[in-house]
Amino acid sequence: MSDKTDLRPQFTRGAVDIIERKTVYDGFFEMHKLRLRHRLYRGGWGDEMERELFVRGNAVGVLLYDPQHQLIALTEQFRIGALERDPSPWCLEVVAGMVEEGESLEEVARRELSEEAGLEVQDLHYIRSYLPSPGGSSERMHLFCGCVDLRGIEGVFGLADEHEDIRLRVFPLDTVLAAVESGDAAIDNAASIISLQWLQLNRTRLG
């Protein structure tokens, strides 16, 4: 009988046999094709299979929160993955960006806050990390909450040479939490929803 308090899976990385890995696309993103097999719960090894892996590294997201004035700031920008999204492919999201070689998570958070919001935020609270889409992507997202005065900071930001056109918007906290609670399609990406639900549970200790 298994231990109901132990959340660890039965198998580890050693139960996967990578037979072949090759890069099949290397552009704005990278795609690998793998031939592999893995151990089975019923015993032995499974048959060889082919899988494509969308290769992305670590990413950082930052929810901007003003505890004194009960405000939330979110970015609004075009997203290719939301091209057919109703009503619009422009999405409300937390500030976010990819970790570059040699950067710490906190350094990425502060760099992205400067580029996408024009802000310097010292008060960062780590929320958690998670895998956005482990069925086909290697990306891991690390979330923070940044506490800062959000009055009068709306504007348009982003790096033109990276084709960024980012509108920073500020909303009352209650409006944003109500949208998440109701399932409003205006906020429908995992990083924002997870961050806001964390804030709902932890806001009293942030001031």
Question: Can you walk through the features of this model?
Answer:
The chain has 207 residues and is α+β, with helices and mostly antiparallel strands. The protein has 2 domains: 13-55, no CATH class; 58-206, Nucleoside Triphosphate Pyrophosphohydrolase, CATH 3.90.79.10. The protein is 17% helix and 38% strand. It contains 3 helices and 11 strands, in the order βββββββαββββαα. Strands 4, 5, 6, 7, 8, 9, 10 and 11 form an 8-stranded mixed beta sheet that branches. The chain has a 3-stranded antiparallel beta sheet with strand order 1-2-3, with no helix packed on it. The longest helix is centred in the middle third of the chain and has 13 residues, at 105-117. The model has no long low-confidence stretch (mean pLDDT 95).
Strand content: 35-45%
The SS-based structural class is alpha+beta
Mean pLDDT, rounded to whole units? 95
Number of strands: 11
CATH architecture of the largest domain: Alpha-Beta Complex
Helices and strands, with pairings:
Layout: E1 16-26, E2 30-38, E3 49-55, E4 58-66, E5 71-78, E6 90-93, E7 95-98, H1 105-117, E8 123-130, E9 140-147, E10 155-157, E11 166-172, H2 173-182, H3 190-202
Parallel strand pairs: 4-9
Antiparallel strand pairs: 1-2, 2-3, 4-5, 4-7, 5-6, 5-11, 8-9, 10-11
